[in-house]
Amino acid sequence: xxxxxxxxxxxxxxxxxxxxxxxxxxxxxxxxxxxxxxxxxxxxxxxxxxxxxxxxxxxxxxxxxxxxxxxxxxxxxxxxxxxxxxxxxxxxxxxxxxxxxxxxxxxxxxxxxxxxxxxxxxxxxxxxxxxxxxxxxxxxxxxxxxxxxxxxxxxxxxxxxxxxxxxxxxxxxxxxxxxxxxxxxxxxxxxxxx
Length: 194
Prior knowledge:
The protein has 194 residues and is an alpha+beta fold.
């Protein structure tokens, strides 16, 4: 069983942490986040400037939630100080991404263009490649663009990136579609010619 809940959290420079009524509020240069912790855990400030998530007893539910809440608070501290980024690649002939204000216009081979507007707290930027190489350096003539999703909330950044990817999931035969930059798509063999 993991004991990650016992590890103290260091507060980065420029980050302010408040705890009141089981709600942790964190503010920093990248924004503000808050999370309601359950009644199973508590919050403790240490003399060395770190914080510790404690549990009220050793019953099953508090033990289950201890590590979870510690990880959530750690992600909040990282998010407001550094932020989180997800990179995506758009691959396919005729596919195109364009920045349009806060959102973007995506052409994915459908009969219509898709306008995607991210929620508040998340920024989306698009880029057209100068050279046709993927993030790992392998050449790809079908590469149509890059999409970068950034924000302070790790869960929201991942959710927005997954929603963009779901607009055109990578094809298993030709590998066309939207994929994460570090994703490996296994390609199936087509029908054998007779």
